[in-house]
């Protein structure tokens, strides 16, 4: 599809902190710590993190990016 000017960019995301997730975590002691422990970057992922990635991929700044699968999850590895 590249010769036709079509670029393919895919985003997957893990747990995104939002009011519903915050409420669920409050009701389950230790869940937030478990989620953070499973990430290589030990911080929550917020909607803005996903939005920033989407904005980049939709912009001309990513014109040379194609055939990519980008995961926005702070390096989560759950077992």
What does this structure look like?
- The structure is a single chain.
- The protein has 79 residues and is an alpha+beta fold.
- It has one domain (2-72).
- Helix content is 34%, strand content 13%.
- It has 3 helices and 2 strands, in the order βαααβ.
- The chain has a two-stranded parallel sheet with strand order 1-2.
- The longest helix is centred in the middle third of the chain and has 12 residues, at 47-58.
- It is elongated, with a radius of gyration of 16 Å.
- It starts with 8 loop residues before the first strand and ends in a 7-residue tail after the last strand.
- 4% of the residues are buried.
- The model has no long low-confidence stretch (mean pLDDT 92).
Short description:
The chain contains three helices and two strands; from the N terminus they run E-H-H-H-E. It has 79 residues and is α+β, with helices and mostly antiparallel strands. The chain has one domain (2-72).
β-strand amount: 5-15%
Main sheet overview: 2 strands, parallel
Rg computed from alpha carbons, rounded to a whole number of angstroms: 16 Å
Count of separate DSSP helical elements: 3
Uncertain ranges: none
Give the topology string: H per helix, E per strand. Answer: EHHHE
**Domain module tally:** 1
Terminal-residue CA separation: 37 Å
User: Which structural class fits the helix and strand makeup?
Assistant: alpha+beta
Mean pLDDT: 92
By DSSP, the count of extended strands is 2
Shape assignment: elongated
Report strand order across the widest sheet: 1-2
- The helix fraction, in percent, is 25-40%
């Amino acid at each position: 599809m590249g010769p036709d000017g079509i670029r393919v960019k895919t985003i997957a995301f893990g747990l995104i902190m939002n009011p519903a997730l915050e409420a669920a975590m409050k009701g389950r002691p230790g869940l937030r710590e478990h989620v953070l422990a499973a990430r290589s970057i030990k911080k929550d992922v917020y909607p803005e993190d996903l939005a920033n990635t989407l904005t980049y991929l939709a912009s001309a700044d990513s014109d040379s990016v194609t055939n990519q699968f980008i995961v926005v999850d702070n390096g989560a590895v759950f077992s």
